Amino acid sequence: MVKEANVVYPSLVDEDANELRHYYYQMLLLRRFEERTGEMYVKAKIGGYCHLNLGEEATIVGLMAALKAEDYIFTNYRDHGYVLARGTPPGPIMAELFGKETGVSGGRGGSMHLFDAERHFMGGYAIVGGQVPLAVGAAYALRYQEKSGVVVAQMGDATTNIGAFYESLNLAKLWKCPVLFFIVNNGYGMGTSVAMGSSEPDLWKKGASFRIHGEQIDGTDVLAVRDACRRLRDYAEREADPVILDMVSFRFRGHSVIDSDRYRNPEFVRKGRQEHDPVRNFATLLHEHAIIDDAWLKATADQVEQEIQQAIDFANASSDPKIEDLYQFMYATEVANTPGPEDALAAVKINRGEV
Amino acid sequence: MPIITYRQALNDTLGEELKRDPNVLLMGEEIGVFQGSYRITEGLLQEYGPKRVVDTPIAEEGFVGVAIGAAMLGLRPVVEIMTINFILVAIDQVVNHASKIHYMFGGQVRVPLVIRTPSGGTGQLGATHSQSFENWFAYCPGLKVVAPATPYDAKGLLRAAIRDDDPVMFIESLALYDTKGDVPEDDDFVVPIGVAEVKRTGTDVTVISYSRMTAVAMQVAQRMANEGISVEVVDLRSLRPLDRPTIIASVKKTNRAVVIAEDWYSYGVTAEIAATIQEEAFDYLDAPVQRVAGIETPLPYAKDLSAASKPSAHSLIYAIRKVME
């Protein structure tokens, strides 16, 4: 962990109290959304792979507080919190996890492939490293079209070991692309520690041979994250230059919902959750500065529970995508000799043994 | 109609599309200052400048990914991959990303991308520079794969591909670049993707092919006519979507079929076509479908071995005679 974890901001007096409360609310929303998502997975409401953002709430909320509407975000498969903190309502997100037609990707994507074009959330991607060149391409397009804004290429720590990452660093620098290479460093790529997988464990240094500036940031401190992201975002936009942010945080559970986390020492995990809980630590900080009180915490917790329950209810009440729409999004431009709704119905009948 | 080379048809089309739409840009290795490894982009950097004609480092995975990401924000990149062999290092971006983004995200974003690349091999290029991988991409739902055989189709399909909102693999052939043919000057002429063409009508046997093998098939058809065998040539033009109705209609008429492609025999394009024919025209066949495709080795360098490994006019004639027995 970063040594300066849990630093108390003496300048809280300069902060807008409502904004601070909003950060806490968002972090709690993420925390509870993911905990309830885990429950829904166990209840088999959610299938496939499912990766939770537990422990990364400050990293996500701090980033989103720094971004502007014109910015774009590409993430890996651990994406629920990013969409939620970007402002997408919880209902369509939960509905996507449930595989419903009302989901953010129309039930075609699932947990790892959330998307919200309107909010410039350009997708969760499930091939490690795959999203990184795409993000550089989006930044390339911004520059080409002479638009303002930056692009976030979010990834896990282990992604910094794959070739696509290095090609992306080179191209982003070479072509003056305003990209935030945003490394969520929770210390583990599945069960492989950073030390086991990376000859340079200081991930923020990995841009050195590309002349890309990097910084390590305490990803459990929402204000530290927000401030660093604001500063580096503005730098990237102003100078049309990529930067690396190495956001150090603690992964609360296994890699995915089905990972029993046997490779981490239970005492290490217990202590990590105790000491590096961004949600609880921020509540304590706000409490100490008399920005919130117990009644507010209780009311906020109730509100969050209600919102998430509504999201679950929405997902439960939503319809599955229609069988005849199986081929619906195959092509954006219509083309001859492609199957349609009737082919879908016929194929599915056979596959279901109904013929 | 003016007669121009396949290369010129491609070069003209790229220039015209750059002029027509400011969001069109070309990216690739050696396409600008060097003017293209096979001179397809000759003169375009000089005319349209470095913003529109972008020389890339040797980083196919990186710049193909950049092109996809840029396409998601509304640019229309046309990427040149020097030869199809080199796209293997970028295949994750094409197969796991370009082909899936529109569908997987519920139609919220489009990927108007063209990847142009020559496939197949001639001239002792050896094992790693002579391969045909268009079937790998044709296998993948979400992509469109076209492979023109003539300057006319090269122009019409490239224009269609650039104006299309989906990722299109545009398969060329080194051996076709210098071939000549009629190409209309009409600015709006396009060849539709997903539609095959009967390039020559005949009554005795249907030869189904695409790209360079269509050129071979046309020559062979002419020769067979002199022997009294009437060959119909179906040029697929698109491998995905595949125009099955045109194939089937032709085979139902001639009752015999030979499929020829340059790729390796097993699991290749010819297998797909032959399977389609037996599924949909079995009762019309007077003989088993014959397949002509590449010998299954890494392509050897030595001249005789190399030439002997690729399908040719000889192997096509052999197959036609066999199917006519």
From TrEMBL, chain B:
<dbReference type="InterPro" id="IPR029061">
    <property type="entry name" value="THDP-binding"/>
</dbReference>
<dbReference type="InterPro" id="IPR033248">
    <property type="entry name" value="Transketolase_C"/>
</dbReference>
<dbReference type="Pfam" id="PF02779">
    <property type="entry name" value="Transket_pyr"/>
</dbReference>
<dbReference type="InterPro" id="IPR009014">
    <property type="entry name" value="Transketo_C/PFOR_II"/>
</dbReference>
<dbReference type="Pfam" id="PF02780">
    <property type="entry name" value="Transketolase_C"/>
</dbReference>
<keyword id="KW-0560">Oxidoreductase</keyword>
<dbReference type="InterPro" id="IPR005475">
    <property type="entry name" value="Transketolase-like_Pyr-bd"/>
</dbReference>
<feature type="domain" description="Transketolase-like pyrimidine-binding">
    <location>
        <begin position="4"/>
        <end position="179"/>
    </location>
</feature>
<protein>
    <submittedName>
        <fullName>Alpha-ketoacid dehydrogenase subunit beta</fullName>
    </submittedName>
</protein>
<keyword id="KW-0786">Thiamine pyrophosphate</keyword>
